[in-house]
Design goal:
Mean pLDDT: 78
Shape: extended
Structural class: alpha+beta
Distance between the termini: 77 Å
Number of helices: 1
Strand content: 5-15%
Strand order of the largest sheet: 1-2
Number of strands: 4
Order of helices and strands: HEEEE
Largest sheet: 2 strands, antiparallel
Helix content: 10-25%
Radius of gyration: 24 Å
Number of domains: 1
Length: about 130
């Protein structure tokens, strides 16, 4: 009888440990690789495909070089830059996209952005100066 009490106690303890372990949050390690080589920058959300000319405003560039978006952002902590939603595939854009590694001749001089995003695609808070 004593053995059965011991075995049943161990079974209950093992069941509780397994039930707790199943509910534990998973540790996810994602290697996102190297920064995309895109002539006009890349979208700030996965799959980080190359963004077309006109999506990003001039403040996203430093000396003609894209400062980044998403995990490769190289700007300030509280950076918000203008974007033009007309060129956002997540908002219906179906036009052409540059190829990775394609070279650009010059950057668009006129820009008509109607939103401000941080480097991860979040809209600027209400009341943020534009």
């Amino acid at each position: 009888m004593r053995i059965w009490k011991y075995v049943s106690g161990m079974t209950i303890a093992a069941g509780l440990l397994m039930a707790t372990a199943a509910k534990a949050p998973a540790q996810i390690g994602i290697d996102i690789g190297v920064q995309p080589d895109c002539p006009y920058g890349y979208y700030e959300a996965p799959p980080y495909q190359c963004a077309p000319d006109g999506y990003y405003g001039p403040e996203w560039y430093n000396g003609g070089i894209f400062i980044g978006a998403g995990p490769w952002f190289h700007g300030g902590d509280h950076f918000y830059g203008h974007v033009d939603h007309h060129f956002d595939y997540r908002k219906g854009y179906r036009g052409g996209f540059p190829a990775r590694g394609e070279q650009r001749s010059d950057h668009r001089a006129e820009f008509h952005g109607q939103a401000m995003h941080d480097s991860h695609g979040h809209e600027a808070p209400h009341g943020h100066p534009r």
